[in-house]
Amino acid sequence: MTKEVATNVGLVTDGSPGARPNEFLDLGALFDGHIAREFADHDVNATMETMIPEPYVHCVPALTGGVGGKGVRQFYSEHFINQIPKDAKVIPISRTIGKDQVVDEFILSFTHDTRWDYLLPGILPTGKRVELPHIVVMKFENGKVAHEHVWWDQASLLVQVGLLDPASLPVAGVEQARRLLRIAQGHGHGNQAR
């Protein structure tokens, strides 16, 4: 995953192993490294090494994730990393970097050809193509991931996998991701209302 980022620095504190106080870390690179361990390497151990000993991951729409080192490891190994579809791809939209956290907006695209409890707990593969906007808020402590809050529109996901009929509801399927991408790329001219 490649991204152009600017001013991706965070201050190292006294508790940072192997670093001097007032040394700056590239938070964007730390974020990208963590995501690469998940999506490129599919390596639970390497992913856990990017995190503090007792992190948490909370996926807000589906109430999935884990708390503490043991809980996060179990989530990654049983419900997330080992279930990532082979064609999963992250398309960056925007990044905001603060003093100790990174907020990334992206579109996650994949074919729902494997069970992926992270997004759809207990739902068998539908074979449907999905393009789903996400927001991840990743907080860092001493150069390691302390927590992740992960957001997406569950209604859009359910429409895309055929589990929710949008005909009489104010929800959108794949159009949500495609319009966001057009607007972010500067091609969002015209009426934005539904």
Distance between the first and last residues' Cα: 32 Å
Radius of gyration: 18 Å
Number of helices: 5
Work out the strand percent.
25-35%
Strands side by side in the biggest sheet: 4-3-8-7-6-5
What is the class in the CATH system?
A: Alpha Beta
Major sheet attributes: 6 strands, mixed
Spans of 5+ residues with little confidence (pLDDT < 50)? 1-23
Counting copies of identical and different chains, the oligomeric state is single chain
Q: Please give the number of β-strands.
A: 8
The CATH architecture is Roll
- Assign a percent range to the helix content: 25-40%
* Category by helix and strand content: alpha+beta
Q: Provide the number of structural domains.
A: 1
CATH topology: Nuclear Transport Factor 2, Chain: A
Order of helices and strands: EEHHEEHEEEEHH
Mean pLDDT: 87
Broad shape: globular
Task: Give an overview of the whole structure.
The protein is α+β, with helices and mostly antiparallel strands. It has one domain: Nuclear Transport Factor 2, Chain: A, CATH 3.10.450.50. Helices cover 25% and strands 31% of the residues. It contains 5 helices and 8 strands. A 6-stranded mixed β-sheet has the order 4-3-8-7-6-5. A two-stranded antiparallel sheet has the order 1-2. Residues 1-23 have low confidence and may be disordered.
Q: Could you give a short description of this structure?
A:
The chain has 194 residues and is α+β, with helices and mostly antiparallel strands. The chain contains 5 helices and 8 strands, in the order ββααββαββββαα. The radius of gyration is 18 Å and the shape is globular.
